[in-house]
Design a protein that fits this description.
Layout (H helix, E strand, L loop, with lengths): L2 E3 L1 H15 L2 E7 L2 E6 L5 H6 L3 H19 L5 E4 L5 E9 L2 E11 L3 H8 L3 H7 L7 H20 L3 E3 L1 H15 L6 H8 L3 H12 L3 H16 L5 H7 L5 H12 L20
Antiparallel strand pairs: 1-7, 2-3, 2-6, 4-5, 5-6
Length: about 270
């Protein structure tokens, strides 16, 4: 999946968030693919600790687990990493698919708990002073703003997919929901298309209109169902609201009525020349 990112606009947004909250904020494609952050580098304490390879591997495993958990949460996912620093993740969703994550991190939550569990050296203690230490209320407020930014960056096209991928997502949606009522207005609302833009993409890429594509898909799906269901049942199962309209469309496409589709005898082969 190829991301399309307006990096200048996104960086300015992250910089404003950091200026407002004092928290480190970043955007990543996944747990192992950072895109940008403000400040750019990880905190001095984490950089020092990750010079130990075993510690670094624990960080990566912890990151993967956190990102996996964030994908299953509708709310910002606030958690404590293996080193007992506080972080928060907010997935960025484009047309129902997670394309990246905003993260605020490397924050010191409970200082006493951190010292008790990690037993830091004097040098590590000195590095604690550089960490942001928001109150739980401030952290929740920052996470809520992050959630809003995740939606705003998609709506205002800071983050998105290529035009072809956008269409692919629409087609995938239709394939999953063809048995339901789908209108052009529904698709425009769900995928933030204008009617003219949606029609243009279908015409240019598929050489047919939106409704024509949906009906053709429904007709294709209906053929296998006719073996075990009545014509009326099949029409309902594939999303046609009117059985007569389904029958007319089926006959026009396949040259035979749906009721006789599986009873139609194949044409006899031409006689063999001797």
């Amino acid at each position: 999946m190829k991301l399309v990112i307006d990096e200048d606009k996104l960086y300015e947004l992250l910089k404003d968030f950091h200026q407002l909250t004092g928290l480190k904020v970043s955007f990543s494609k996944d747990y192992d693919t950072p895109i940008m952050g403000v400040p750019h580098n990880i905190c001095a304490l984490c950089r020092y600790k990750q010079s130990d390879h075993e510690f670094y591997l624990r960080c990566k495993a912890c990151d993967k687990n956190a990102y996996d958990n964030a994908t299953r949460s509708d709310e910002p996912y606030i958690y404590e990493c293996h080193y007992h620093l506080t972080e928060a993740l907010q997935p960025v969703v484009v047309y129902g698919k997670i394309v990246g994550y905003f993260q605020i991190g490397q924050m010191l939550g409970d200082r006493d708990k951190f010292i008790r569990l990690n037993r830091p050296t004097d040098y590590e203690l000195s590095l604690l002073e550089d960490l942001a230490s928001p109150t739980p209320e401030t952290l929740r407020a920052a996470a809520a703003i992050l959630s809003c930014l995740a939606k705003y960056t998609v709506i205002d096209q800071y983050i998105g997919l290529s035009a072809q991928q956008n269409l692919d997502v629409v087609l995938e949606y239709i394939d999953e929901h063809y048995s339901e009522r789908i209108t052009v207005a529904d698709l425009c609302k769900i995928f933030h298309y204008s009617r003219s833009s949606l029609f243009m993409h279908f015409k240019n890429e598929l050489n047919q209109g939106v409704t024509s594509y949906i009906n053709n898909l429904r007709l294709e799906k209906s053929r296998a169902l006719l073996k075990e269901h009545s014509v009326k049942e099949v029409a309902t199962l594939v999303g046609f609201e009117n059985t007569n309209y389904f029958s007319r469309a089926f006959r026009k496409k396949y040259g035979v009525s749906p009721s006789s589709y599986f009873n139609k005898k194949p044409a006899a082969p031409p006689p063999t020349r001797t």
